[in-house]
Design goal:
Elements (H helix, E strand, L loop, with lengths): L16 H26 L2 E3 L6 E3 L6 E3 L3 E3 L3 H11 L2 H18 L3 E4 L11 E8 L23 E7 L1
Antiparallel strand pairs: 1-2, 3-4, 5-7, 6-7
Length: 162
């Protein structure tokens, strides 16, 4: 006797009334759930695109908005994968916005990188390297002298302490 390798649901006729009722019930539940999520947005609650948790939108430091909303807890895992998917211009724009958000709401510090001298980051909750905003990543100021904000490297390290 040969066993059939298909799934057991495939034996149900495509127009089975029980299957249609189940589909209608699931469609109604999905619609109702979307209505509840829409109502939460009207009440000032927004959802993290990564962990799907809801947060009050009145607190601007909870969710980072870059076209998708990402909560502070998810940023350390989200940013490395997101930055690799973006083009150079989009990555630089987003990292500048993220660095500013981290400094404003999460006590992030800008640390100048110096060649040959590594900064101790063992007490960092999150860190990233971003283009220096003062020299636009060139390492030089308008007068042609080395940028004092990034030590002429064109990048700075953003560190969020624990």
């Amino acid at each position: 006797m040969q066993q059939e390798l298909g799934n057991e649901i495939s034996h149900v006729a495509p127009h089975d009334p029980a299957e249609n009722a189940l589909f209608e019930t699931l469609s109604r539940i999905e619609h109702d759930l979307n209505d509840v999520i829409g109502a939460l947005v009207l009440l000032g609650v927004k959802r993290c695109s990564q962990c799907k948790q809801f947060f009050r939108s009145a607190d601007p430091g909870v969710l980072f908005d870059c076209g998708q909303l990402v909560c502070y807890t998810c940023v350390p895992v989200w940013w490395p994968s997101q930055s690799m998917r973006l083009g150079v211009a989009d990555r630089e724009r987003t990292e500048g916005k993220l660095a500013s958000w981290l400094r404003k709401y999460h006590r992030a510090e800008v640390v100048k990188m110096t060649p040959g001298n590594l900064t101790d980051t063992t007490d960092a909750e999150f860190q990233m390297v971003a283009k220096c905003l003062e020299c636009a990543g060139s390492g030089k100021l308008m007068e042609g002298e080395r940028c004092r904000f990034c030590n002429g490297l064109g990048t700075v390290r953003i560190i969020v302490p624990r």
